[in-house]
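Risk register update: the risk of archive-format incompatibility is retired. Evidence:
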Amino acid sequence: MNFIYQHEIMTELKQQIKALSVAYFEEVVAIRRHFHQNPELSCEEFQTAEYICNKLDEYGIPYTRGVAETGVVGLIEGKNAASNCIALRADMDALPISEESDLEYTSKSPGKMHACGHDAHMACLLGAAKILNSLKDQFEGTVKLLFQPSEESYPGGAIRMIGEGVLENPKPVYIIAQHVINTLDAGEVGMRPGAYMASTDEIFITVKGKGGHAATPSQVIDPILIAAHIIVALQQIVSRNADPVVPTVVSFGKITGNGRTNVIPDEVKIEGTVRTYDETWRKEVHRRIEQIAVSLATGMGGTCEVKVSHGYPFLYNDPALTNKLSLLASEYLGADHVKELEQRMTAEDFAYFARETPSCLYRLGIANEEKGIRSNLHTATFNVDEQSLETGIGVMAWFAVELLKEPGVTRDA
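Archived output:
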């Protein structure tokens, strides 16, 4: 009888969440459109934070603002609030991309755009927060809302929020993040336990030689030629040095020589990225890049400096938590709407949260082929099928109430 009773309560709560997701859908769409029209770049999310605070005030949810300068942390306390805590995270910043669309809610800020879906992330978290606040007399524990700035710009807002104590008082048992993706349709979610997204580092190489007239190559030390050899040679790190079972990327996206058709410059700058899934191998890649670049430059009569800007670690989704969320998503959406994700070489500063607390970043499908919504993230034509927001707010709220049933920690932990 007890099991049947508990099942009936769970089913009733799930239906309430679904009904509230429908009821709050239009408001969440309006919220997302406001964010989309008013994008702010990393560390500049002041008006975005103000809007979030106004919404939390409207919902009667207490919060702390100014975390990591522009971040906001809200608290929804259910019954016996100190018994348990889980956290839900949404990132806030936009990208320096000029939007190319004829949407009625296109970006009002030239050169700025929510091209990674952070507008949808914030809207979904606010919608889930409103649902959870409406149901707080039906669950035990606390839900912590993390509106995090500066995901797109290293060192990122996550590590700053952690440093300012966001994972204490109360201490969450789990942290969950929802991120849109264009390879899944609206109404679907995707999960992957274990290593999911790569670490990311920026590589800056300066090759110095001796410039001069291009018609007298014997009188110069050509840094462009040296740079070309370095770029080609560094490809062997992936093809011949990397363990084939450890995904690794070494790519270069910018070369600056500042010469002319008839002028060989004194130096060339090369900029690129390194991405992988193993911290020991990550350090070895850095070492090999410097060794190969310096030795090649020296051997060709020039010099070389290599600087590594350490970025985010690889993102690890706690397997037990992720598998549980997959089951919960199947209960809420149906198993055919829950997909298995492939590893990605993109990066996320949510990885810092995942190093501190069992965490999961899952994906919310936003594509709709019939509506022409299929553009990749970080592109000028990126958009989301707004029907996905109903799924986003409902699934997130459902995850929260179900995870709070697990053993937790006290508020002072």
